[in-house]
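Protein in question passed on here:
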Amino acid sequence: MKALTTCFALLALVQYVSAQTWYFLTFTTPAGSYISSYTGSFVAPPLPQAATYYLWPGLQPPDNAGVLQPVLDGRSGTWWIGDGWCCANPSLAWGSGFNVANGQTVNFGMKVNSIQSGTWATTLSSSGGGSATGSFPLPTHPMNQAIMAIELYDVAWTFGQFAFSNVVIVANTTSTAWCTNGPSNYQNAAVVTKSTPVATVSGGQTTCKIASIILVRPA
């Protein structure tokens, strides 16, 4: 989570001393186009133990300089979620958050007021009644990658599936292939099931909708 950028940027995973395992999916918009909104829901799986489990959706810029992410964090033995920009300049405070019980649904939203020079507004809410908001000024980091990730340190993927629903990604491009052909599956490390992505074009932007996308288990 908070040590993500060094690792995630260009996937330089060898920089970590601890045993780290990645599973993630990425929708990447065409060169020169950027994401303005990323929303959806996911279900918190059963947390096996207190350990470094980081499960999250997130947004990343083309230079992989950082990642904007609401992170489901299992280190305390109870899931906790909050939004943050990880882990490079600009240095921004981590947002507020709340605990999430096993099986609860978390709704997330990340929207920018201006792609090229804007501030990202983040929202979180859960079926258990938790909620949080955040504001992240990132004027030099337009986002082109929408990610769904499982990030593990010295633990295995034993918690079952990480299931997303009603995912919507909006980007300022009329291309649709990035949506309908996506997502990429890092090293094909995860077994994935998904509904067919649906892309619609209006006003010079594409809205990509995925009703269901599930990281089922390690491949």
